[in-house]
Amino acid sequence: TVxxxxxxxxxxxxxxxxxxxxxxxSLTVNLLSAYSALTAAINHLTDSDRGGRFIAISSxxxxxxxxxxxxxxxxxxxxxxxxxxxxxxxxxxxGITVNAVEPGLxxxxxxxxxxxxERLALMDAMIPGGAMGTPQDIAAAVQFLAxxxxxxxxxxxxxxxxxxxxxxxxYAP
Length: 173
Fold this sequence. Notes:
single chain; alpha/beta; 5 helices; 4 strands
């Protein structure tokens, strides 16, 4: 099993405000690193006794929703899900499944450090159940996709967002 972590670079700014160099860095960190990790792991995953698993960490921003000022990040995450679907088809015949987990708003230490209690409360209120997810929620999704119970799941994206993206406007409380 190989799990691609969620290393990220997220330059913020409207279209034209983010430099081409920052866009390139975002694509490199968020997309090209996953491609590199996957292609480097193919032989190891093929030799796995129970079938190899590659699990990418995506985001609802890009593939499922848009958020002003986040075009480079959104482009990369949408591309990552295209890689997942294509790789799933190409690697199925050698016993490798390729899937992604697509987190929504997740209460992390970084999020708490960057936003005050009022903003965090607004973010919690965006979720139909009233609270953002936790890193443990993402870990549980990854653990399931890595398990033998997910052996026939391939090319899928598991959305872990507490139904945020099912709401009319996912980023407005």
